[in-house]
Amino acid sequence: MTDSNPQSPDLHGTGARTQNNFLRDIIAEDVRTRKYGDAQIQTRFPPEPNGYLHIGHAKAICIDFGLADEFGGKTNLRFDDTNPEKEEQEYVDSIQKDVRWLGFQWERLCYASDYFPQLYEWALQLVKTGKAYVDDLSADEIRQHRGTLTEPGKDSPYRTRSIEENLDLFIRMKQGDFPDGSRVLRAKIDMASPNINMRDPVMYRILHASHQRTGDQWCIYPMYDYAHGQSDSIERVTHSMCTLEFADHQPLYRWYIEQLGIFPTQQIEFDRLNITYTLLSKRKLLQLVSEKRVSAWDDPRMPTLCGLRRRGFTPEAIRAFCAAIGASRTNGSTDIEMLEHFQRDDLNRRASRAMAVLHPLKLVIDNYPADKAEFMEVANNPEDPSAGTRQVPFSRELYIEQDDFRELPPPKYYRLSPGKEVRLRNAYFITAQSVVKDSAGNIVEVHCTYDPASRGGNSPDGRKVKSTMHWVSAAHAISAEIRLYDKLFLKPDPSDVEEGQDVLSNLNPNSVEILTGAKLEPSLANARPGDRFQFERVGYFCLDPDSTPANLVFNRTLPLKDSWAKEAGRQQKGSK
RNA sequence: UGGGCGAUCGUCUAAUGGUAGGACAAUGCCCUUUGGAGGCAUUUGUCCAGGUUCGAAUCCUGGUCGCCCAGCCA
């Protein structure tokens, strides 16, 4: 951090420094010049309740809530519920839950539907001042009249209707005199505008649909473009942050606000979040769910907040990630490693350690008494002494990881092999002596001897070992189901598909692997759903809600970084 | 080929006419009772061409490339 690169303080207790960005600059300047007088900074997070929130929304939430908070302002949660055909209460509920889980509290809970009466009054006003008209053209005809990107549109034949007729027709639209799709209310702006959004945009459509909040009270519904800017204005939102694709709509929002003479909210657009190997489109995520390519919205492979939560991700890590990526107006794609880094960083500091053997291999200590068992004192988190210690049982027969033994060790393999001495973490030094194989030649047991003087993991003679391995006592171990998750998509850009294919063709067929024979240290029997652990030398895991005392289920949040895997990969590559 | 927006290490992002910096990733070394974590070091960048200026990532001109817009979706 240098003087020429000032950064904001650590705002959310995430430990991550927040990058300066142009949004903060704009707000800071508006505060400095007292653009809004004594009024506080007001922002809003405006989701449509038509799906579950994902990590892309987390970025927007952190911007909307974070920036307001930084300048002593407030943020409303507003549901942009103007399309009853796609919206559901289930989504309204999940969105509130996810925003809270992320760690934010809204000032007011609002709904665009709360403004339907006001919006209707304003529409009446625009009709009366000749700024809006009822169009009888069909959707198809309206499209044909709209022109193209390079050609201007043509006026609708109904554009010159009298104010009286427009008023009568619009009122009757609202009364339910007409069927769906028969007419719309349009703003009278400019069919030749180079900005297509200004070519007499539709304000209201007839929809005899029941709305999740207003029921059958309305049969005309405002378009998003007619509702959004005014909703911001009603809430006296000072800074309305949204994604880049809405930049073209700004002139329209301003037009409505000017015609109506209401509070002018300032809209500022920033770039949408993209992450490699990840799909961030509500429509496509809905497709994954409805076509059962994943188990549900909260499938741990989903980038939804509920999916990430179930996977074991923490709100602190997601906030730190969002702070680190900042915001700009550049289209790009953030490496998934960045997200994973902040999650590992958080869990490394906070997660309790435990020993778990995913692929068990029996280890027998020949010179350890068969009837003996002792308890080893083990640190719950070496990064955090205040996390305390626990007692872990040790006995003659243990399980170790299959990967931790090689009869013929490759170069730079430091783990157990015949004649080699290693340390069992927090226990003893052992030396491999022999193996037992089944009829197929598979190693089913490794026999070793231990050094009783090395209890706790150090030899009094100062002898060093190259490797430390985790273990669980066979007699005391508990079993669990382990779900190993990997990337849902094969390509960095999932939408990079062959002609005629869709994103589903890029689905990773091995995005989940279920292990049923894992052996865990007994303390893990007390875990509760949502509890997160680091299984030492393996990765971060989280107890799944599917878990029962009789069948524990752990989700792998992320594997630990594994420099041996990298070395082994290098060796394999080199030998080809 | 209309309009809008943009282009800085491999990736994300700072520098607002004055030393191109940080994070992720990568590489090497050190350390380690997790081949984890940590420490140190290193590599890589201003889209191109002109111009203005003592000085340009920043300002100007002209290109190039990318994204968004033709829902009665949001």
Describe the overall structure.
26% of the residues lie in helices and 22% in strands. The longest helix has 16 residues, at 55-70. The chain has a 7-stranded mixed β-sheet, covered by helices on one side. Mean pLDDT is 95; it is low at 1-16. The chain has 3 domains: 7-110 and 228-285 and 312-345, HUPs (Rossmann fold, 3-Layer(aba) Sandwich); 116-222, Alpha-Beta Complex (Glutamyl-tRNA Synthetase, domain 3); 356-477, Ribosomal Protein L25, Chain P. The protein has helices at 22-32, 55-70, 89-102, 116-128, 139-145, 163-175, 224-234, 250-260, 282-290, 305-311, 315-325, 336-350, 563-575, and strands at residues 42-45, 74-79, 109-111, 132-135, 184-187, 202-206, 220-222, 239-243, 266-270, 352-354, 356-357, 360-365, 373-379, 389-395, 397-401, 421-424, 429-437, 443-451, 468-469, 472-473, 478-485, 512-520, 532-535, 539-543, 552-559. 38% of the residues are buried. Helix 2 packs across helix 11, helix 7 (224-234) packs across helix 8 and helix 11 packs across helix 12. Helix 8 links the parallel strand 8 (239-243) and strand 9. The chain contains 13 helices and 25 strands. The structure holds one RNA strand of 74 nucleotides.
